[in-house]
């Protein structure tokens, strides 16, 4: 821009500024990014709920497994079935 006249520099700067203003207006009106953020948040919530549900089920089945093991260890098949 050094060798350009003042009016030429002004026109180039004006053109660049207008292009930037159009870009900003289009960016502001574009809602695709907002929708993506909504889906990411929704997916994270579903994954969090799934982890919480898995944790609750896993804890309950651990206790049930321990109780079943204890009950089966104490059982005698011949006396229970036969009689």
TrEMBL record:
Keyword Transmembrane: yes
Chain ranges passing through the membrane: 39-57
Keywords recorded for this protein, A-Z: Membrane, Transmembrane, Transmembrane helix
Name this polypeptide is given: Flp pilus assembly protein, pilin Flp
Source taxonomy: Bacteria, Pseudomonadati, Pseudomonadota, Alphaproteobacteria, Rhodobacterales
């Amino acid at each position: 821009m050094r060798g350009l006249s003042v009016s030429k520099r002004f026109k180039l700067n004006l053109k660049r500024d207008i292009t930037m203003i159009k870009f900003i207006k289009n960016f502001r009106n574009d809602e695709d990014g907002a929708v993506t953020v909504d889906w990411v948040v929704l997916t994270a919530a579903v994954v969090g709920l799934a982890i919480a549900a898995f944790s609750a089920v896993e804890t309950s089945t651990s206790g049930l497994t321990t109780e079943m093991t204890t009950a089966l260890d104490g059982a005698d098949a011949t006396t229970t079935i036969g009689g």
